[in-house]
Amino acid sequence: MNGEGTKKWARMTGDNVGKYIIVSMDDLVYSSAVVREEITGGSTQISGNFTPKEAQDLANLLKSGTLPARCRILQEEVIGPSLGRQSVNSGFNSFLIAFLVVLMYMLFYYSRRAGLVADIALLANMFFLIGVLASLGPALTLPGIAGIVLTVGMSVDANVLIFERIREEVAGGKGIRMAISDGYKNAYSAIIDANITTLVTGVILYVLGTGPIKGFATTLVIGIITSLFSAIFITRLIFEAFLDRSKTLTFATKLTDGAFKNTNINFIGLRKSFYVVSAIAILIAIGSLFTRGLDQGVDFVGGRNYIIHFDNSVRPADIADLLEDELGERPKVITFGGDNQVRITTRYKIDDDSETIESEIQQSIFEGLRPVMGDSVTFDQFNDDYWRSSQKVGPAIADDIKRQAVGAIIVALLFMFLYIFIRFRNWQYGLGAVAALIHDSLIVLGVYSLLYGLMPFSLEIDQAFIAAILTVVGYSINDTVVVFDRIREYRKLYPKRPSREMMNMALNSTISRTINTSMTTFVVLLTIFVFGGESIRGFTFALLIGIIIGTYSSLFIATPMVYDTIRRIAKKS
Q: What's the domain range around 354?
């Protein structure tokens, strides 16, 4: 109860007059006292029916909070100013480039006025998103910036859904005012279903994730909410203003007016061929996972990462050779960014919790790297000019991260199944969606297993990769739900048509939306991949592969599986 503590206690008690303050330890409540008035002066009394022994026990309990306790650091990360500045700059640059590309694409595809309305909605979305983040005050990490950039790509989806429905209404012969009204009305169901499933993924990431995953989830969840508001309300107000002023509105340019119209792909008829393609891909993925395994990062196995920058280019194998004697084991060394920067991964003395162990390891690395840096470089110069960042994850926290990762994926799949089952009142839809998600996750894991060690960037399995997998799950289910929503609509309109015909109609009628959303999201992710910096390249690579696989599975796996399961049950009955 120093000066600052007294002020905080006065504020807390003043804000909670009439409420309870609980004194507890080890999940056991020892006292439950009601706040009678604001407590100032730093002295507090608890009155009631106490025996002297009970009062002494409570006093001892309150004093136990001051007992010294040794703190053991299980996970820590230190980033040097140059690497931090480089990450922020690369993340911001990727954001600007991706944003401009999406703005130009909407103008190109949906005409000058409609595209401008979509662009205004995107700008408003960014304004709201940054404003909410600024008010909440979270630390904006590189994955958080990636979440913002990904929101740009995914926020286009609601606009695309609305604009495509408006184009359908216009093609059906309706006037532009009626077409806009009905287009919004008919798009609401798909927009809400698609975004709620992605929102579920974001919430699960926030609840079960830690560190960078939580930052990514925060921006993703806020971005979904702000993009929904911008796409549904702001665009509608602008269109109404245009119509009141008798402005001409079109939703296509000369180049895109006939795009994806009258497509008649027999998705259901081709399903067995794509089942075979997917089965082969999954078998290859599983085979690689059993033979090559995955390159698990320190998040999952524990250890230390160090990023070291050199004046000239170096070979990772040479660095590993130099450090093997100093560290007592051969570390894993990979090029990180340019050929003059490496990341060193080691489990050397990971169980040592002494206060000086970090400086001792840094000294060992410094001694081992002397032949590369030169004898004139001092230890202080090494820390200032060559050392970029360090990360430590203890074995205990690594086990926790593993459990959280597996739990997050299982919980996400379960919630997806339950939501679709409840929303579409048919378990076959939930099964088809979850089967497609498992299909996507296995193939992305297989790609990482096949390519690690062969790519010029890291393909480690860490917390960021789990965030990428769950984002792919959210994106894939988003695409699948839009198709399911159209099938449900056609069932009401054409109750006597066979399921094969209705499902093919649904897939063909939504293919324009699928291609546009996939293309804009892919372009955004490709921009992050190229300009976003080395530390997030593996994360973005997983998203790029996931977008391709997720688009494929929503067209050729999810809906065909619904068709097959419904048909088999109908035959049995």
A: 303-393
What's the CA gap between 563 and 229, in Å, rounded? 34
Residue 221 falls within a domain, yes or no?
yes
Contacts of 546 (CB under 8 A, 6+ apart): 440, 444, 468, 469, 471, 472, 475, 476
- 28 and 139 inside one domain: no
* Residue found by looking up tokens 């000239």 in the block: 312
Clarify whether residues 215 and 261 are in a common domain. yes
Please check whether residue 296 lies inside any domain of the structure: no
pLDDT confidence tier of residue 430, bands split at 50, 70 and 90 = confident
The beta strands (E) that lie in 254-370 are given as: 303-309, 332-335, 341-346
Are residues 260 and 163 both part of a single domain? yes
Give 144's Cβ-side CA count (13 Å radius): 19
Beta bridge partners of 309: 341
CA–CA separation, 366 and 221 (whole Å): 43
What is the average pLDDT across 533-537? 69
pLDDT digits (tens, 9 = 90+) for 283-333: 999 999 999 888 877 767 777 888 888 888 888 888 888 888 778 778 888
Residues 10, 12, 18: CA angle, nearest 5 degrees: 100
Q: Are residues 91 and 222 in the same domain?
A: yes
For the stretch 228-251, pLDDT in tens is 888 888 888 998 888 888 888 888
3 state SS of 11 = helix
Q: How many domains does the chain have?
A: 3
Is 71 part of any domain?
no
Residue range 397-406, pLDDT digits in tens: 556 666 776 7
Residue 225 within a domain: yes
Mapping DSSP to helix (H, G, I), strand (E, B) and coil, where does residue 211 land? coil
The pLDDT of residue 210 is 64
pLDDT at position 337: 66
Residue 254 DSSP label: T
Question: What are the residue ranges of helices labelled H in 303-394?
Answer: 316-327, 357-368, 370-373, 379-381
44: domain CATH number? Answer: 3.30.1360.200
Q: Is the pLDDT of residue 458 over 90?
A: no
CB 147 within 8 A of CB 214: no
What CATH code is carried by the domain that includes residue 389?
3.30.70
**Cα–Cα distance, 365 to 360 (Å, whole number):** 9
